[in-house]
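Methods, example record. To illustrate the input and output format used throughout this study, we show the complete record for Putative N-acetylmannosamine-6-phosphate 2-epimerase. The sequence lines were provided to the predictor; the line carrying C-alpha cells was produced by it.
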Amino acid sequence: MKNDFLKKVQGHLIVSCQALAGEPLHSSFIMSRMARAAKQAGSVAIRCNSIVDIQAIQDETHLPIIGLNKVDYDDSPVYITPTMKEMRAVASTGAEVVACDVTGQKRPHDEKLADIVDQMRQEFPDTLLMADTATIENVQEAEQLGFDVIGTTMHGYTPDTDGMNVADNDFQYLKEVLAATSKPVIAEGKVDTPEKASRCIELGCHAVVVGGAITRPLEIAGKFIKAVNNTVKA
Ligand SMILES: CC(=O)N[C@H](C=O)[C@@H](O)[C@H](O)[C@H](O)COP(=O)(O)O
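The corresponding predicted structure is encoded as:
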C-alpha cells in the first residue's frame, strides 16, 4: 500500500530546501534549520536534495519528504536522481516520495526509466514516485509509466524548453499539463510570489512547491539589490 503523502499535502505549499555545493548555504545543518522555519510557517512537507540533507531534515522536522539526489554523470544531461542507484538510496531514507527526471533525455549508462520504475515498485512498494517533467510529452510518458504524481520541475530547464516559465501567460503551460493528465500535479519551478503559489492551487494543482523564493537568500537578496541599484533618486 502506498503512503498517505498525497492526502497530507493536498491544497498546500511544500517548501523546497536545497543548496548545492558552491551555494552559500550548502550545509545539511543549515538546510535542516531552513526546513524548521518552513515547518513553523506551516509547510506540510519538504522537498530536499541528497541523502545527508534528507536525513537531517527528517530528524529536525519529522515532516513528509520529497527526496531527490542530484548527481552529474559524464554521459548524460539527466541529474535529478538519474539512476537506480540514487533512486534506491533516496527511497532507503524513508522519504515518502522519490522525485526523478522524466525529460525523455538519455540517462547515465543508458539506464531505462521503465526498468527503474519496475525495480522501484518491487523494492519500495509504498514509496511514491514523482516525475520531474519539462513538456506535455514527458507528462504523458510519466503517466504511462505509472508515476504517482507529476511535477513541472524541469519546464524551462531542458534544451526544448530553455527560458520558458511555468507562470507565463497566467500559467498557460500548467493549464495544459492539468488537461493532459489525470494524475495529481504539483506545480514547481519559478513560483516566486505568494500570488503565483495561490494561483497554482486555484487552477487545480494538488500542491505547489516553492524553493528559491523562500530558501535561497542569494537569489532573494539579488532581486532587492537589482531593484535598488536601478532606482534613480527623485
Ligand atoms: C531545475 C532544478 O534543478 N530544480 C531543482 C529541483 O529540485 C531545484 O533546484 C529547485 O529549487 C526546485 O525545483 C524549486 O524550484 P524554485 O527554486 O524555482 O522554486
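Annotations derived from this record:
The chain has one domain: 5-229.
The CA atoms of residues 26 and 201 lie 30 Å apart.
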